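Students often ask what a holo structure prediction actually looks like on paper. The answer is less mysterious than it sounds. You provide the chain, you provide the ligand, and the output is a string of discrete structure tokens encoding the 3D arrangement of the protein together with 6-O-phosphono-alpha-D-glucopyranose.
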Amino acid sequence: MWKELKDYHKAHKKRRISDLFETPDRAKRFSIEFDGLLFDYSKTSIDTQSLWLLLKLVEENGIPAKRDAMFAGAAINETENRSVLHTALRNLDQRPVMVDDEDVMPYVMDTLQRMEEFAADVRDGSFQGAGGRITDVVNVGIGGSDLGPVMAALALAPYHDGPKCHFISNIDAADATDTLKGLDPTTTLVIVASKTFTTIETLTNAKTVRDWMQAKVAQPAEQFAALSSSITKTAEFGIDASRVFGFEDWVGGRYSVWGPIGLSLMIAIGPDAFRQFLKGAQAMDHHFQTAQEKRNLPIILALVGLWNHQVCGYPSRAVLPYDQRLARLPAYLQQLEMESNGKSVAMDGTPVSQPTGPIVWGEPGTNGQHAFYQLIHQGTGVVPCEFMIAARCHEPELQHHHDLLIANCLAQSEALMQGRSLATARKMMAQKGLDGDELERQARHRVFSGNRPSTTLAYEKLTPYVLGQILALYEHRVFVEGAILGINSFDQWGVELGKELATALQPMVEGTQSAAQKDGSTQRLLGFLTG
Ligand SMILES: O=P(O)(O)OC[C@H]1O[C@H](O)[C@H](O)[C@@H](O)[C@@H]1O
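The corresponding structure tokens follow.
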């Protein structure tokens, strides 16, 4: 089907997206409305025929069966022989989910309840620090044990009514230093978040925070909680089992915000709002499992991605939330998408036949407009843009801000599609009184080629429920893209080599081992940095 798709794209390369709107109901046909969301992909070059071909990819690759296998607990992460069941964490109906003939739901619900009890205790002051009621929570974690709660805590700021959340992730001492500055160790709760509890950054930071606390608190361990799938290792660190919230290896790090890794978020917004977050994701899970393919949001979002990257050959995609509180969403999606689908071999170990995941990047609008949008509009490459925008903001008294935000968001996708022709640019320059060569020269700088694809995901308001929907939508998009590409979206071997080499380099940095075996560049840099 790839060949048919590429041939079709080639044959229609010259056609403009704006011309596709000659079909009067295009905006309706190339959009999906579901549960308060509107996903518009009509400003892409996908038409009826290419959509049909793309849907064939879904069929040919047996996506519905693969999806059902994931939800049912099959070990689809074949290189680690693991099930992939982050969906179980939001399976609030408690429909049984079997792993090795055992229903995992009682454990999931028991953990959720323990988290809720602990969060309630911290929030109402039943759980106290040496200096009284907890005022601040510091989550120490990295990657999937950081990005989800960081992103969601910012996204749901209007719902915060608990202690303030802080996050330390980087091994750079600046992170711990700047985060702890101004915090009172006697009223701070530290959550050490690490699935494996072996990550060097997290363990080093956790020890540093413990030392910081030790100066003022006699028993710092009592103000520590842990989120991990290794109960033995959390015990070795000295964290009491009553404050350890476990999860199994069938929850991937970048898919883990729904369970214990979300504890800091739950403490900030409260257990009820956290349940709403889970409910939104659960609604998306249900939609993904039941909606007809061509009306299925994750499937269509995945097909738009495959069309733009694998078929049209655009190397990256920009995530552009017109929602300041989604400022960390691009970073979260970078891990979700690029760690999942940045692979070079198919499930069976043979080289892939198609390029795999694109580069994902982005920033919130309107800020990006005043920075990198120049390249998006007039650069030589095409960057498919994924806009996001809420119908309503949390600040009704500042509605005029939101009106401007909406106007800007819509203006960008319109400008990307329509562009500005040379004829129009010439007219503009003539009106300015230019003529001859100078008119021509100036006009050419003001041409926008247009015909650049974008999608817009519009939602009612950024509530916990809606955030849950959006994140689950992107998770399933990654799954569908990965399954169609035939890769394993759930391992991450590509991060290992750097870790190994860092461990080997440490004694050379410390000066206890010679670097003579290293390449010339590494030796010279070591000399400069440590000499
Ligand atoms: O939660 P942890 O076990 O500490 O892992 C933290 C992160 O480290 C690794 O490098 C992985 O690439 C990530 O997927 C993971 O989220």
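The first helix runs from residue 2 to 11.
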